[in-house]
Design brief:
With 327 residues, the chain is an alpha/beta fold. It has ten helices and 14 strands. Helix content is 40%, strand content 17%. The longest helix is centred in the N-terminal third of the chain and has 21 residues. It binds UDP-4-deoxy-4-formamido-beta-L-arabinopyranose (WQD).
Length: 327
Amino acid sequence: MTWLITGGAGYIGAHVVRALLEDGKRVVVLDDLSTGSADRLPAEVPLVTGSTLDGALVESAMREHGVTGVLHIAAKKQVGESVEQPLRYYHENVEGLRVVLAAAAATGVKSFLLSSSAAVYGMPDVELVTEETPCVPMSPYGETKRVGEWLVAATGRAHGMGTVSLRYFNVAGAATAELGDPAILNLVPMVFERLTKGQQPLVFGDDYPTPDGTCIRDYIHVADVASAHAAAVRRLESEGGEKTELVLNIGRGEGVSVRGILDVIGEVTGRDASGEVVARRPGDPARIVASAEAISKELGWEARYDVREMIGSAWAGWCLRHPEARA
Ligand code: WQD
């Protein structure tokens, strides 16, 4: 089989490309390079540069490369931006997906995987979030991912495609320093940036109903996210894979607080990362931690890396891009 990976030149996508190549799969990447970069891809991987909204391009890429399965990772992913630009998010994340699905159906693709997100759950008031926990997305971003899951499942049923939607929790780390996350939009890189500038990291609220008062999340190494995709691909390629219809969390089932992350960052970097408490950030749930049972049962997948490995590898990537950080 040949797998088309949309968004394959991005932070998560490039890790997925690497995991599939290690598994001996043939891959081709479609990426508009808006946030991705061609130098994240090994030279042997064909790159089609263009948008998922360009149906003619997507379909011709599928035909030219004999694509039989799709991993649709390309999307806009900033919660705050989605509140300001809902039309753009629905256009790129829902219409972009619809276009790719239409091309997949037209060319007889048999397997389709969607990158989804814990953002579909909103603020669930449960210890561990299972795939049956009701979805009440709190942002247009989360809504586009939920709608996307419906669209993928319905298209799979109608056109005989096996489908998997993977709900990522808080992704961090890097498989190699070169593949590190260049964006400064999530906790770990935001802390690194402040430390590099000689500032204390910010803690958005320490009066939450959690043991240390800071928010708890389920952090997952990007290499584990990638190996979960490889496991899903093996399932979709297996006998009867075209009957697959799965929605699965990718998490570790272990909650870590903002303070817990700062402690590890302090140890890894050798800096004082005790943090400066500021006001809560609107819309942050106190706690969201995955149950990782379903993915273990369905795909036999387990996370391999802990928070220390996430932070250590993320720091190596940060220092490569910001050599002044080591000073
Ligand atoms: C983590 C925790 C902050 C920065 C978001 C999306 C989610 C998914 C992952 C795409 C929170 C706190 C942060 C800082 C802090 N994205 N924080 N100081 O909000 O859990 O999840 O990214 O699919 O859908 O919502 O991630 O990394 O922004 O924050 O205290 O300088 O760190 O308040 O509790 P979040 P995050």
